[in-house]
Amino acid sequence: MRSLGDTSTGKKTVVERLLPQNSPSRAIVAVRNIARQRRRAASTMIGVVLALVMIVSAFVMNDSINSIFARQYQEVDQRDLVVALNEPVTPKALNKFASISGVTRSEPYGQTPPLLRSGSSFIGQQLQAFEPATLAHAFDQAPVGPGIVLGSAARDELGLGLGDTLMATLPAFGQEQQLTVIGFADEPIRGYSYVDVGQWESLTGTPPTEIVLTLTDDGAHRSVRDEVAAVEEVLSVNDQIAIAIQTKSLLAATKFFVVARPYRRTGSGGVGFDARSPLKTWLSSPSALCLVSFWVGFSEECFSPSSRPLSLPSPPRLTPAPPRLTPGPSFKVVPSSQYWR
Question: What Å distances lie between residue 162 and 20, 148, 155, 167, 192, CA to CA?
Fold first, then answer.
């Protein structure tokens, strides 16, 4: 049985004297127990403070991520649809997509993850190729001519300045080339570096196989995406608008995850946390439903493969050969009649 605390005196505590004379008994008992049950009061206060700090930190982090994504994908990255083709981009293909209703402009586009190296330092980046007068990206300094516009993460890691050189290795194309730094991109997401389309062809040895589309109205991205996906040369369509919408929904859902906990009905009819089976109760909670619905919507909303099935060659059928025994110097065939002697 828990101790009742200090019961030797009936004097009012300092905190109890601050209460009004007509305070309810519940408030008086609660305030009185602060002094009489010091350990429990201290642990309760510490728990409340830690829980408050955790919740406030989660909301601050969520707001910071929201501001980073808002600036990156609303102010800097202006791509609406990214179309992957089964052949290099040609002027005919650009005109074909530009003539679709709702498309403002179509541009050649390329992306690949290179390894950038300078001396003994190296870093992995996402390299993107745009036209110098692109509408799909808001550059402080657009990549023009030979050279690379370096992301701030690569600049800090490699310690390079304007006019310095680095070695770019492209594993996907088996190419390696020395590039000159012609500018820097100070963006919220620091893992991108940029070249123009001409430099891309020099790096990879092939024209880009992707097209980036800028739309007149963001609200028409579904209809334009479906029409683009029906084109014969299209392999897939990446809907950047839908990705931004779903990412914003996920960030909003994290606030719900901070507050929501899996609960169960207790035997007395109340509600309590089921510590015996946390996974089972979490799967039946609103948090799990929200997470599952997000991923289902993300997969259906953001990516539209071509409407035609891809014809891939069937793998060769391998038939294992039966094992063969070759008589050697220590192998001797004995007639079966000799076993019974």
Answer: 71, 10, 10, 15, 17
pLDDT(279) > 80 = no
Global pTM? 0.63
Alpha-helical segments (H) within 128-273? 152-158, 197-204, 221-229, 240-259
174-219 pLDDT, tens digit each:
889 999 999 998 888 888 999 999 999 989 988 999 999 999 888 8
User: What residues form DSSP beta bridges with 264?
Assistant: 272
In whole angstroms, give the CA distance from residue 137 to residue 73: 10
CA 330 to chain CA centroid, nearest Å:
64
Give the DSSP H or E segment for 106.
Answer: strand 103-112
C-alpha span between 85 and 237 (Å, rounded): 9
Cβ proximity of 221 and 81 under 8 Å? yes
Cα(262)–Cα(270) distance, integer angstroms: 14
Q: Give residue-wise pLDDT tens across range 87-144.
A: 999 999 999 999 998 899 999 999 999 999 998 888 988 999 999 888 888 888 888 8
- According to DSSP, the residues that pair with 117 across neighbouring strands are 122, 167
**210/236 Cα distance (integer angstroms):** 10
Nearest to 58 by CA among 251, 242, 230, 226: 251
Taking only Cα atoms into account, the Rg of the chain, rounded to an integer number of angstroms, comes to: 33
Per-residue model confidence as pLDDT tens digits over 328-340: 444 444 444 443 4
Rounded to whole angstroms, the Cα distance separating 240 from 302 reads 7
Question: Residue 1 is encoded by which pair of tokens?
Answer: 């049985």
Angle, in degrees to the nearest 10, between helices 38-70 and 25-36 = 100
d(CA 241, CA 218): 7
Give dist(CA 81, CA 106) in Å, integer.
10
